[in-house]
Amino acid sequence: MIIEGDQMVRIGRRTFEQLISRDAIDHRIGEMADDLTEQYRDLEPVFIVVLNGAFIFAADLLRACALDCDIQFVKLSSYQGTSSTGVIQQILGVQIPLRGRHVIVVEDIVDTGRTLKYFAELLRKEHPASIEFVTLLSKPDCHETRFESPYIGFEIPNAFVIGYGLDLDGRARNLDSIYQLRDESP
Description:
By secondary structure, the chain is of the alpha/beta class.
């Protein structure tokens, strides 16, 4: 990976340009954390973090929330390279009972929405008191299923993005800003 200033990143033949700065991310996370704290103040919610992409976002979000809560991790997969395979796999599931609990699913990005629809159906079988989704990014032009949430960090165009937890075959998660694919050199 070659970082070319704050605005450009190269990975192999792919060039990415900055889409969302770390300052903008930090500001928006603070707003969402304040809203979550207000809504769930006395409810002791369970935050379920979808690995691997959401771990950096979730860490910053949960540190900013002033809540008594549980944190669980799940691993769902539907991506290979720069595109979705369309096949969703649950690799790691929730390890505590959810019946009667307020569940907040933390996701890095909502693309087609199929993964969250699949996961919401699994969660409903556990009879939680409520289910809410928090996502750093949403691509409304790509949604194949209805997705609504008051907790969307940023709506972005249909572009492949990396950084701040999002990756290209496991690389670039450690970038502190979000970058979108600009081009692939021959």
